[in-house]
Design goal:
It is a single chain. The chain is an alpha/beta fold. It is built from 3 helices and 8 strands. The strands form 2 sheets. Strands 1-2-3-4-7-8 form a 6-stranded mixed beta sheet, with helices on both faces. It is globular.
Length: 156
């Protein structure tokens, strides 16, 4: 039986929540105050339905920001976690549908593959660049040195 549970974690949900906390603290250090679970109307036509983004702020804040956080890693065998990247594509779609006035940040965990010579974020941009909206910033968080690197240049 395969176990896709993150090693040394209570649950994958806990891993995700812990990573959201890391993101909250990072943005707070950079004077961007965000809240968890920010709901915004999204839709392809006039009809809209609320989607809850991991982090964000309200429309009354000077800079409107929404953030999706993902702490996915390469598989234990160093392969592409295809199902997880489908979730990343879904996040890109929600960013595409989100109100234009929001700054859109995809905050991901840095996971480097010796086998591939690149991080999962670098791989994602190389393989899925055609699905990444031009106004989305992809920030890669290194949990070893607590630094963040912007992986893409936005084209707004």
């Amino acid at each position: 039986m395969n176990n896709f549970q993150r090693e040394n974690a209570i649950s994958n949900a806990h891993v995700g929540r812990d990573f959201e906390e890391v993101a909250l603290k990072y943005f707070e250090k950079n004077n961007i105050i965000l809240n968890k679970g920010v709901s915004l109307p999204v839709g392809v036509n006039q009809k809209k339905k609320n989607h809850v983004f991991d982090l964000g702020n309200t429309s009354s804040d000077p800079e409107k920001v929404i953030v999706e956080c993902k702490s996915h890693k390469w598989t234990s065998g160093g392969n592409v976690p295809s199902a997880k990247l489908t979730v990343w594509n879904e996040a890109m779609y929600y960013f595409y549908l989100a109100p234009e006035e929001y700054r859109k940040i995809f905050f991901i965990l840095k996971d480097y593959s010796e086998k591939r010579g690149e991080t999962l974020g670098e791989y994602y941009i190389r393989a899925y660049d055609h699905l990444i909206p031009g106004d989305v910033e992809i920030m890669e968080y290194d949990n070893i040195d607590s630094k963040v690197r912007l992986l893409n240049s936005i084209s707004t």
